[in-house]
Each structure stands twice: as C-alpha cells, then as structure tokens.
Automatic annotation (TrEMBL):
NAD(+) binds at residue 299. It holds the Pfam family AlaDh_PNT_N. Residues 4-136 form the Alanine dehydrogenase/pyridine nucleotide transhydrogenase N-terminal domain. Keywords: NAD, Oxidoreductase. The keyword Oxidoreductase applies. GO terms for biological process: lysine biosynthetic process. This is Lysine ketoglutarate reductase. It comes from the Bacteria. The keyword NAD applies.
C-alpha cells in the first residue's frame, strides 16, 4: 500500500503535516507493506531534507500513491481522480463554502475519509487538533489579559519555537497573575488543553458550586472552574437535565450561564455547541449589570451564536478585538468598558510542530493499522464519506440534498 503526505495548498499557508519525519520512518518500519512518498513543500514545519535524512522518498510526482494524506481542504484542481484522500473537508455540517469541493470529490470518484469522521464504535472522535487549540487559546487569554490591563507582555505563540517555549513564558508570568475568576467550558480535547495551561500556571480549581459562592466575598487568588453541559444548561421545567438530554433534546433546555457570568472575570470556551441549543448569553444579557466578564477567549468560536460577543473569527496576525455591549459593535480590544475577545479559529496552526507530532501519534495508532488488519475495528468503514463509484456512503447520505442543490457541478 502506497501512501503520500501531500503538500498543503490552502491560503493562508498551513505549516502542519500528518506525520513528522520520525513518525513517517516509524510507519515504514511498523508495516512491511507500507510505502510512503513525501510531496515537497516550502511551508511545512519539517523541511523536505528532514524527511530525506529520515530515509524517506521526497517526490514531486506522487500519482502512484493510493492514499493521499493532508490536513486542510485540497483545492479542486489538485484532487487526483480515483484516489483515497484523508483531510479536513469541512463538509459534514453542509458548510456552503465547501459544497463544490464535495461535489468534485464525488465526480472524481475519490474515496474521502475526513479526519473529523474517524471515530470509535461509540462515535467518539479518535484524532484531532483540539488539545492544541485549547493550549494556544488559553495562552492567548493570558496574553490578552496582560495587554488589556498593562500587566505583562507575553509574545505570540506563533513567534515561539514550540510548546516548551510556551511553558517557559508562562513560568515567567505565573507570579504576576491578578486574582481573577476564570470559567472554562466543555469536557473534550479543547478543554483538556485549556486545563493544562491553567495547571501550568498553578491556578486553583473550584467546583462550579464553590465558584458561585465567590460572589459573596472578595477573592484574593486566581481560580477557575470547569463547566459541562449540565452546569450551563438547565431544563425549562426546572428539572436537572441529563447529559444525553443536553446533547439530544435542546428544545427542553434554557441557559443557566448568567449566574456564572456574574462571578467570572474571564471566560475561556472549549464546549461543542449543538445545533438548536440555547445561547449561553445574548447581547441583551451582556448589557446587564450582572454580566461581569471582561475577557472572552472563545476557542469554540461559533460566530454570532451562543457567545454573543463573538461577532467574527479573528486571525493569528490580529487575534484581539473588543465588543461594546451598549452599541453591540466591535471596538478596539482595550476600549474601557468593552469586552476583549480572542476568537482565532485556526489556533493549532500556531503550534505546528507539536500539533503535527500529536496528530501523527493518533494517526499511527488508530488509522494506519486499519489498512493492514482488514479494518478489524471498522475505523475506515465508519470514516468513509464517499465511494469510488461517486456516491455518498450510508452514514453520510444526509448530505444528498447538499450536494444536489442546483448550481455548479464539476
Ligand atoms: N478555534 C480553534 O482553532 C478550534 C480548533 C479545534 C476545535 N475547535 C472547536 O472547539 C470545540 C470543541 O472541540 P473538541 O475537540 O474539544 O471536541 P471534543 O469532541 O473533544 O469534545 C466536545 C465535548 O462536547 C461534548 N458534546 C458532544 N456533542 C455535544 C452536543 N451536541 N452538545 C453539547 N456538548 C456536546 C462532548 O461530550 C465533549 O465533552 C468544537 O466546537 C470545535 O469546533 C476550535
């Protein structure tokens, strides 16, 4: 079986890759029948020479490979018909901007395996960059705090070599943190990354109940609490929802977040927001005297949705903006009375080396073995979105109306 690590072609350039040179060499050692080609790249975090030095073949012509492996969407004209492809296609939620891409994949009779669709039997995602989004998002929250209140100046993660350098910077500001109350949301990979940063800063964790009691007295240490779905949602009928209801029955729910917003200074999000679920807080809620949050690092980053001040995604180059609750408009991030917002939607790109290595580990563990054990765990079968006959698989048949909308078809 011949695999190719393809070059990223999207703009802005993405430096991540699915296997580091060391991991690429491991693949060929682990599976005697695996061969790997590396398509050259000027932007990849690991230079072509590092793959050559690891004993791999760097080749401009990769057409002989059966399986093409990348990170971001592949432009339509670079898709080679009849191949298997792995990349993030951003089509499973019927994203309008990638409809033509999925149509082209069907027309070119490509078998698409989206990284997001690689799940175990319980439908839990097995690979992703979430941890790195959490790490960078939480760091960016403290960077914003330092800039907003003139406390300290942290460099951008993008300007640091790797996660070890990030840890060194955090150590420098650890004792300079003011006594702020931090809320984090979610319980998945992103929130795991956020928590790692808070733990590196030795920030004390409280239960949601203990956190709410802070409202009654002056707190003199930096603390955080982690909220899961059943903490920030309640049932309209006053009963406590189960987690399953929170995921599957959004019509039963209403937000219970404002009691936390009254106590928190900083919000760092890592939740998944399900379609039709209540908003955490609205623009009206943000006008309330009880809304105490002055800084939001919205890693979840749903635009004009559950976190009302996230008006747009921001960029690695310019990560911060401000939200003025009275005018409901964007202002400079350090405008007095405004809420500073960090809503970068490609955070893992700021840690390309660590993110690539972490992703590679998961890919080596969960995906490559499936090619050599007849897909014993059903990984490939569940992940496959399109077939070599140009049709959607059963699991993704709900995309039929999306790809058949009248408009361009390749
Ligand atoms: N800003 C960025 O660069 C960036 C990068 C990666 C991920 N993200 C976003 O962060 C969010 C979390 O990602 P993750 O990797 O931690 O996901 P995850 O799958 O690891 O965790 C999601 C959590 O949400 C829960 N959940 C699942 N379905 C839910 C539903 N319908 N309603 C409420 N909760 C539900 C899960 O139990 C889990 O605890 C996602 O919205 C993702 O798009 C942002």
């Amino acid at each position: 079986m011949k695999f190719a690590l393809i070059r990223e072609r999207k703009n802005p350039p993405d430096r991540r890759v699915v296997l580091s040179p060391v991991q690429a060499a491991q693949l060929e050692h682990a599976f005697a029948k695996a061969e790997l080609l590396i398509e050259p790249s000027q932007v990849r975090i690991f230079p072509d020479s590092s793959y050559t030095q690891a004993g791999l073949q760097v080749a401009e012509d990769i057409t002989e490979a059966d399986v093409m492996i990348g990170v971001k969407e592949v432009p339509v004209d670079a898709l080679i018909p009849g191949k298997k492809y792995f990349f993030f296609s951003h089509t499973i939620k019927k994203q309008p901007y990638n409809r033509d891409l999925l149509c082209a994949i069907l027309d070119k009779k490509i078998e698409l395996y989206d990284h997001e669709t690689i799940v175990n039997e319980s439908n839990m995602r097995l690979i992703g960059f979430g941890r790195y989004a959490g790490l960078v998002g939480a760091y960016n929250a403290f960077r914003a705090l330092g800039l907003k209140d003139n406390l300290f100046k942290l460099p951008k993660v993008d300007d640091l070599a790797d996660f070890d350098a990030v840890k060194t910077q955090l150590e420098l500001i650890r004792t300079e943190l003011p006594p702020v109350n931090i809320v984090i949301t979610g319980s998945g990979k992103v929130s795991g990354g956020i928590k790692e940063i808070l733990e590196l800063l030795h920030i004390h964790e409280l239960t949601p109940k203990e956190f709410l009691q802070l409202g009654q007295f002056q707190n003199n240490q930096t603390v955080f609490t982690q909220l899961d779905v059943d903490d920030y949602y309640t049932r309209k009928d006053g009963l406590t929802p189960t987690k399953t209801e929170c995921y599957n029955n959004p019509e039963l729910l209403e937000s219970d977040f404002m009691k936390f917003a009254a106590v928190a200074d900083i919000l760092i999000t890592g939740h998944f927001y399900g379609d039709g679920a209540p908003y955490f807080f609205t623009r009206e809620d943000m006008k309330s005297e009880n809304f105490n949050i002055s800084l939001v690092a919205d890693v979840s980053c749903d635009i004009n949705g559950p976190i009302a001040c996230t008006l747009r995604a921001s960029t690695i180059a310019d990560p911060l903006y401000g939200y003025d609750p009275s005018s409901e408009k964007e202002v400079a991030f350090n405008t007095p009375g405004s809420i500073a917002v960090m809503a970068v939607d490609n955070l893992p790109c700021e840690l390309p080396k660590d993110a690539s290595e972490g992703f590679g580990e998961m890919f080596l563990e969960h995906v490559f073995p499936a090619f050599f054990n007849d897909d014993a765990d059903g990984i490939l079968e569940r992940a496959k979105m399109t077939t070599k006959d140009g049709t959607l698989t059963e699991r993704f048949s709900y995309l039929e109306d999306y790809v058949n909308e009248p408009k361009t078809r390749f």
